[in-house]
Amino acid sequence: MKTFKLWVVAIAACCMVMSSCNSNEPTLQKKNYLTLWNECEAVTALQAYVEDVTNPNSPNYITPSDRIATFDMDGTFVGELYPTYFEYNMLEYRVLDDTAYRDKAPEDVRQTAQEIRDFVRNGTKLPDHFDMKHAYAAAKAYSGMTLAQFDSYVKAYAAKPANGFTGMTYGESFYKPMLQVFEYLEANGFTYYVISGSDRFICRALTESIGIAPNRVIGMDVRLQSTSQGTEAGVNYTMGKEEDIVRTDELIIKNLKTNKVIQIAQEIGKVPVLSFGNSGGDCAMHNYCLGNTKYKTLAFMLIADDEDRDHANREKALKLADQWRENGYIVVSMKNDFKTIYGENVQKTDFSF
């Protein structure tokens, strides 16, 4: 009888092992990945969602290959209020301060950079549709650079101290709680992509340090060509071994609003099941996710409501929070939900010019 019981136990153990081996699920992690978060609606919703859709016995189970999460960059997991977007600050620097370029800048590019400086230093309102004006100016300002040269330029600027903070460079200005979300999702079989309005190669340069692969970064694009291609169409020109790839001054796409959805459809080929953003430029991406008819989905919006640890407009942020909730998005309050933003050694200061 004792031998029979041992056989039963052994067979049961084998069945459990076989079941585990036949599953494509990663081994469930007991680790608490979200240690930099306070208890809040966003964490509760995210954890309940992940536990549900990764459970093979749940009617909401999502296969690992379809667990796609999309993240905006600026203001979603990278600071954007020092005192404006990284790519705006960098263009202002290149055109007005970089001695190697400033005397070569075309007049329209110089005007755009000056408008950024006036906005930053004097509070002058930026012109309507400035995102597009900046995109065209940036295309011209970096035209002729090889991708390696541009990558080095971005990283050199990112190594400068972040304006309005002590203890942090621009390249270190990640929201640490959001980096834990990347780790948590990856541990549960999700693949995440960065979908930004900023230049694709700026985003790649900034996110390399946190281990995001360049093929998972989608952003604004300019046309590229080989060094000796000239005006010849790429379909008619064969690049030589000695040539390199350079940026041109021709803007292809500003990756905002519905353009984000178009880029996701073209480059990822699947509808996301999770979406994270912080502004109206992310609503189309969120709606695309929430419109996924195959799977259960969630969309999250961060609000910059912490005036003590970051440069924020709390009144504006709280109004946006109401709007985002009406849209069906889960709100993340940086003030209430984050135990830290940039790390305990980083302190907010006045801006310096």
Short descriptors:
globular, two-stranded antiparallel sheet, disordered N terminus, 40% helix
Structure characterization notes:
The relative contact order is 0.16. The chain is an alpha/beta fold and 353 residues long. It has helices at residues 2-22, 41-53, 86-96, 107-122, 130-141, 147-158, 176-187, 200-207, 258-267, 283-290, 314-326, 334-337; strands at residues 68-71, 165-166, 191-199, 217-226, 245-253, 274-277, 298-303, 330-333, 347-348. 40% of the residues lie in helices and 14% in strands. Strand 7 (298-303), helix 11 and strand 8 (330-333) form a beta-alpha-beta unit.
Order of helix and strand elements from N to C terminus: HHEHHHHEHEHEEHEHEHEHE
Span of the ends, CA to CA: 85 Å
> What is the percentage of strand-forming residues?
5-15%
Overall, the morphology is globular
**Care to count the β-strands?**
9
User: What integer value in Å does the Rg equal?
Assistant: 23 Å
Low-confidence stretches: 1-22
Q: Percent helix among the residues?
A: 25-40%
Strand order of the largest sheet: 5-4-3-1-6-7-8
Class derived from helix and strand content: alpha/beta
Q: What is the average of the pLDDT values?
A: 93
Helix tally equals: 12
Main β-sheet description: 7 strands, mixed
